[in-house]
Amino acid sequence: MKRIGVLTSGGDAQGMNAALRAVVRTGINRGLEVYAIYEGYSGMVEGGERIKPMSWGDVGGILQLGGTVIGSARCKPFHDRAGRLHAARNLLLNGIEGLIVIGGDGSQTGAGILHAEWDGLVRELVENGEVTKKAAGRIKSLPVVGIIGSIDNDMFGSDITTGADTALHRIVDATDAISSTAASHQRSFVVEVMGRNCGYLALMSAVASGADWVFIPESPPDVDDWGAKMCEKLSNGRKMGRRDSMVIIAEGARDRKGNPITSQHVKEVIESRLGEDVRITVLGHVQRGGSPSAFDRNLSTMLGVEAVDALMSMHPHDEPLIVGMQGNKLTRTPLAVALEKTRAVAKAMAAKEFDQALELRGATFKRSFEVVQTLVRAKPHPPDPGQRRLRIAIVHGGGPAPGMNTAVRAAVRIGMDRGHVMLGVRNAFRGLINNEIAEVDWMDVNGWASRGGSELGTNRLIPKGRDLYSIARNLEENQIDGILMIGGWTGYESILELYMQRRNYPAFDIPMVCLPATINNNLPGTELSVGADTALNSIIMAVDKIKQSAVATQRTFIVEVMGYYCGYLALMGALATGAERVYLHEEGVTMRDLVEDVDDFKRSFERGKRLGLIIRNEMANEVYTTNFMRMLFEEEGGDLFDVRQAILGHMQQGGSPSPFDRIFATRLGVACIEHLIERALNGSHESACIGQLRGEIVFTELDGISKLMDFAHSRPISQWWMDDLRPIARLLARQEASTPQG
Ligand code: ADP
Fold first, then answer.
1. CA 269 and chain centroid, separation
2. Closest C-alpha among 527, 589, 517 to residue 722
3. Is 59 helix (H, G, I), strand (E, B) or coil?
């Protein structure tokens, strides 16, 4: 295969540009010519100027742009064979031997049909004399690979699709803003989000915003008079002191009989039954807009690389594939299978088989819906009279991480709903030493889903010596049956300390669970920690602005990010912003690297480069500091370019948590509490760390955890992203003369 085509089609989705950039650059890197087909299938049908070769530099500086730079369209003629005949002709004339389609299920269906008809189309074109036999003979079949670009995450083949995370960002920005005004006026709001057949955006934004009620197409309310049920819940919430009510509704919401439930309908029901002032916000195209989130940039980048590799490995007659991310792993699924499963959900809903529709969405989706139903309650279920009521303490440890409060909220509410007493420890392990331990109530955590920082308070103190004695006494005094630690590295070390001192202090002989919450993502037993996604988004927003500030000058920026000795934020930040260089402590930095990089930058600026971007981890090298690097590049850059440094600092720890972090924190908080309750009730004293590995929630026993930890550098001994993502960052960042930036 020598030449491939790439198009973006159907509804635009943020991240399409990142996928395009990755396809073009990976293709070129693998020795292919990559042609862009502008305006989706319309460009394919029209041909001519709409199909053009792409250079390395053509896709520079587009990572941060919303929409798609090669245009997208809905193309009616492509629905007919006659249109596809034109399309096939234009692909043949351009010598395109394989296709990468970035678009939703409609676009992928179209690609599947083109692939299936290829033989017949080519034969007809030869017979009509529109293409020569020779040209036709060169391209006997058209292998196709799809990347799903869809903001509503409505297609199988990927756990999450390009654009869905950014859409959640837009929704959550809106719900956060609405919450504050709603609370000021004691109003109710109905927020309508996209999703005709898929409640993903509605459900996940309900988890992330802490909404009070949610309507999704897959699971209509279980009673005919849903209005009465909803209003009872909302008014109970009011009685418990909630100042605002928010209902989230997917545009395709319906009742048990299949009749649509509209936002207007919901408004009227609340107004007439509760006499409240209700406002509707229909979010519409806002959800498609804006700059893509860090997650979407990196997801789409990885899918773009994978799509090229998949295409190159296909035999000419192989059936089309979809590349996706499932369980944090890149996967390839036959297009036919992905489409069939996608259609099955729509079919089940049309047949009003809602249980099946929910089942088909998968276990995580179903579980999230159940969790939302508990979290939105106005008060917990009362405990069973005969049940043993556990007393569970929640404590933080380490630096603040956005999402800590979200995890506490989920844990407190699920724990209380199961009939147990939840206690909050103020000021992390210092609070355990000083007995700052108090019961937390259901409404105490109201509004915490979206709140940044740490309401309970956190610090890096690790208890030692006599501290342990005080902690043991306080645990006994408060009759604590289990501990949930939500925090970072020093929180983990503190829990390990208690765990190892069990023989000396029987009070520590209770089940304990650690929940990873740190922006650094440097914890053992998990691929991800709560807070890292928010920090990454803060980094890319800052770097996007920094890049813009330099439009007219020839300049290189050196941006220093946090992470302590862990390079996760630096590497992911570099991937998401298109930085040319990234310096990590894991790899070390030598004088030779710096000299090579300086020479490389000089060559590029000589050839017309305008902007250089380097991201370094704060601890990348003790001697070659950020300032040192700035001076070195400045001196060596001479008249070619100047250099500025930006140390992003604590803005990375702040801000309200990203939707991803809120959803992740909720998932982990719920799982931890359920795990602790089970262990404590069974009399088990084992302790563990929760984590997400390959998309699954897993618990690693504390016994084995220290073997995974590099204590000198506060990071796991083995870090998955160094193997999986480092090579991609290197590939895409290669400098080329014509690259103006990223
Ligand atoms: P999305 O890809 O976002 O689902 P659409 O359903 O509008 O968006 O599809 C985008 C384009 O893909 C359509 O305008 C059309 O050109 C092509 N397409 C969609 N469905 C088919 C089909 N069944 N047969 C042929 N082409 C199709």
1. 35
2. 527
3. helix
Domains of the chain and any CATH numbers:
3-160+292-326 (3.40.50.450), 164-287 (3.40.50.460), 391-530+657-711 (3.40.50.450), 532-655+726-733 (3.40.50.460)
Q: SS3 for 422? A: strand
Are the CB atoms for 51 and 42 separated by under 8 Å? no
Residues flanking ligand 1, CB < 6 Å: 9-11, 41, 74-75, 78-79, 103-107, 109-110, 113
User: What confidence score (pLDDT) does residue 735 get?
Assistant: 56
- Say which residue the tokens 């016994």 belong to: 703
What are the tens digits of pLDDT across the range 78-112?
A: 999 999 999 999 999 999 999 999 999 999 999 99
Nearest ligand 1 atom to the CA of 104 is 2
- Give the DSSP H/E element, type plus range, for residue 147: strand 144-148
Q: State in Å, rounded, how far the first CA of the chain is from the last one.
A: 28
- Residue 28 CA to residue 31 CA, distance in Å, equals 5
CA distance 618 to 342: 45
Look at residue 483 and tell me whether its pLDDT is greater than 70. yes
Any bridge partners for residue 334, and if so which? 321
Give the gyration radius of the chain's Cα atoms.
27
Per-residue pLDDT averaged across 518-527, rounded?
98
Q: b/e string for 630-655 if b means 16 or more Cβ within 10 A? A: bebbbebbeeebebbbbebeeebbee
Closest-lying ligand 1 atom to the alpha carbon of residue 103: 2
The pick from 84, 102, 109, 339 for probing ligand 1's pocket by mutation, whose C-beta has the most ligand atoms within 8 angstroms, reads: 109
CA of residue 146 to ligand 1 center, whole Å: 13
Q: Considering only CA atoms, which of 497, 424, 512 is closest in space to residue 466?
A: 497
Q: How many other CB atoms are found less than 10 A from the CB of residue 293?
A: 28
Please determine, for residue 381, whether its predicted confidence score (pLDDT) is greater than 50. yes
Kindly tell me if the per-residue pLDDT of 579 is higher than 60: yes
Active site members: 152
